[in-house]
Write a structure and sequence with these properties.
Shape: globular
Radius of gyration: 21 Å
Helix content: over 70%
Largest sheet: none
Strand content: under 5%
Structural class: mainly alpha
Number of helices: 20
């Protein structure tokens, strides 16, 4: 009897090798990405004092990033699909690193607005590009945990970013502290972009570090999944804009980002108010605590959801907890407030890898590239969050009103997620 190679074993080895080779670097790149978009929260007070940027100007500038970010992701993902991730992702990293570093040159509101818009243009393609890139490498039945590992970058960035940004804000040599923060963290993206050109591989067929049987098993499994998505979801770009499921995914993601950036942009200020301290190293260190909780949840929950195949229900329940916690922290004391902030932050980050398993199991071919970017335009919620907060605060003459509005939208999102049609299990290869 002839012993034939086991395709499921070869597939498992291929996935493990790809995970070890690619995921750590993608996490590093996303850490840098999130640092460069969120570090403006730590410069809020310094920009107000040294450049005259008011609360309203800060909210507009912080949000303008998401206008260009949300509109430029669509063409960027089509470029990536055409020329490959290695060249495109490395170019984006270098470009946005230079723009972020140029924020040191801000002189007032108008230059602040312009650089935030330009940062959104250069960073727009990175996140949807990586979501698409993961579909080139990892089968659907483990994509939840892979995306969970990728999303570890968000809390890691905010754990590192708090103390790092706080430390740089305290530097008083030459430039002002906020200028050092933008310069150092921006140039870090340039370095990572140079590394990306040498480390990323576009597709499994080009991976010299995969054995031939591993390469073939992975390519075949991904091809079978792609064929199933073609049969159940849109595969052409034009059909995306008429597809109710895709538009519902977009609406859900807008609400997720409104909640997320309501926490990200204001967490240092909330922590400072709880501690009765201004931004600096101490506030930066305490601001890291909610993101430590997020590391645990984003590592554990996607794995559980993959095992139980209940991404939709788990995502909805998480949003209920996050919304309830968001109602608590604005009026709570220091301990309760920090616990509620931790639950809200952890939930709003952990829900996102669970969410992305849904559209990536539905879209195929170029429609996947375009559809992921279209849904990623939900990052417009990052523009809406600070401006909705300011609007509600002014309307009700309360600095808590905006937080309550964002919390209500988070609970609404839990309901919308719960009403998505029941997800189908991914196609399974024989023996896999």
């Amino acid at each position: 009897m002839i012993d034939l190679p086991d395709p499921s074993a070869a597939l498992a080895r291929a996935v493990l090798h790809a995970m070890r080779r690619l995921v750590p670097f993608l996490v590093l790149a996303y850490v840098v990405s999130f640092l460069d978009r969120a570090n403006v929260a730590f410069a809020k007070e310094a920009l107000a004092m040294s450049r005259g940027i008011s609360e309203q100007a800060y909210a507009l500038g912080a949000g303008l990033f998401f206008l260009s970010y949300s509109t430029c992701g669509f063409p960027s993902n089509l470029i990536l699909y055409r020329i490959g991730a290695r060249r495109w992702i490395s170019s984006l990293l270098i470009a946005w690193g230079l723009v972020s570093a140029a924020t040191t040159l801000v002189t007032g509101p108008m230059s602040f607005y312009g650089l935030r818009l330009l940062l959104g243009v250069t960073e727009a393609g990175f996140f949807p590009g990586i979501i698409l890139y993961l579909t080139f490498w990892f089968p659907g039945r483990i994509r939840g945990r892979i995306m969970g590992l990728f999303y570890l970058a968000v809390p890691i960035a905010l754990i590192i970013g708090g103390p790092l940004s706080g430390l740089l804000l305290d530097v008083r040599t030459g430039l002002q502290g906020w200028q050092w923060m933008f310069l150092v963290e921006g140039l870090l993206a340039v370095v990572v972009g140079i590394l990306a050109f040498g480390l990323l591989v576009d597709r499994p067929a080009q991976a010299v570090w995969l054995a031939e049987d591993e390469k073939r098993a992975l390519i075949d499994d991904l091809a079978r999944e792609q064929a199933e998505r073609r049969a159940t979801g849109p595969a052409r770009i034009r059909s995306l804009f008429r597809d109710f499921t895709v538009l519902r995914f977009l609406g859900i993601y807008v609400l997720v980002q409104i909640g997320t950036y309501g926490v990200v942009f204001y967490l240092p200020s909330v922590v400072g108010a709880l501690l009765h301290r201004s931004a600096g190293l101490v506030v930066g260190l305490v601001s890291a605590i909610p993101w430590i909780f997020a590391v645990v949840t984003v590592f554990v929950l996607p794995r559980v959801a993959d095992q139980r195949r209940n991404h939709r229900i788990m995502a909805s329940v998480i949003m209920v907890f996050a919304g309830a916690a968001s109602f608590i922290f604005p009026s709570a004391g220091p301990v309760t407030g920090l616990i509620a902030l931790s639950v809200a932050a952890a939930g709003l980050i952990a829900v996102q890898p669970l969410f992305w398993t849904l559209p990536t199991s539905y879209l195929a071919d170029r429609a996947a590239a375009a559809g992921i970017a279209l849904i990623g335009a939900g990052n417009l919620g990052g523009f809406l969050a600070p401006n909705l907060k300011v609007w509600a605060d002014d309307l009700f003459h309360s600095h808590r009103a905006g937080f309550y509005l964002l919390a209500a939208l988070t609970l609404l999102d839990a309901v919308v997620i719960a009403t998505i049609r029941r997800e189908k299990p991914p196609f399974r290869a024989n023996g896999a």
